[in-house]
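Appendix B, example 12.
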Amino acid sequence: MLLRPGRRCSQPPVRSRSRDSKAPGLSPAAAKLRLLKRLRCTLKFEKCAWGTGARLVAGADEVGRGSLFGPVVAAAVILDPAYRIRGLRDSKLLPAERREELAIRIREHSIAIAIAAVDSARIDQINIYQASRLAILHAVQRLAPAADYLLADAVRIDCNLPQVPIIHGDALSASIAAASIIAKVERDRMICAWDPVFPMYGLASNKGYSTPHHIAALREHGPSPLHRQSFAPVWNAPIPQEVLSFMLDEPASERAVAEEEEIAAVLTES
């Protein structure tokens, strides 16, 4: 909730358990998708933050939380109040071509953009929720200029910025939606780059998510070194997870540092 003298600005009511969720034959995922399509993505929350005196309001979001493979990727975006980017909405509701188009416009017209990733090994160590929060924190810390206010999608980050976690934020806040789009486009690019290395999993088409083909490939071939071992479909695979030779040669701490530096270099180049 955002407060300012003489005015109260609160999140519009969102009923996650709408009548649609009780409709016969409608799955929870389908009910949520129908709900998200009804929400309007606006600058209401950004305007509330600007009203408190903040000038560099960042929206932050992550993608890849439910994937079985690869990193969780987060982005932070500070939109330019003087330039309106039309068509911003939750990246899950946009076709890939439209996401690519919007990502270009976001990069061209935003004050600042930053991306961060937390790899599968770290996800297995600290769990996906904490890894998602960490990825968002790193993205926010990389913003230049730095943000003075943070809007995040349903999570609170361990930083000193005034912040508001917004349920369904990527469907309600333009800044969070922009971050969702940037993160989604970047993560899809990263996962597709691994498709020729591990062609049996169909990563270019499923982006690491739990599709029937992906599950069947896990049962037949076992997990790759980049699969998330803490996720049930991965550790339930009858064949042990493969370990690449370089992973056995390097001490764990050195490998973690090298992986983080490699990811940072890739994200900087992009």
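The longest helix spans residues 174-194. Confidence is low (pLDDT under 50) at residues 1-8, 11-21, 266-270.
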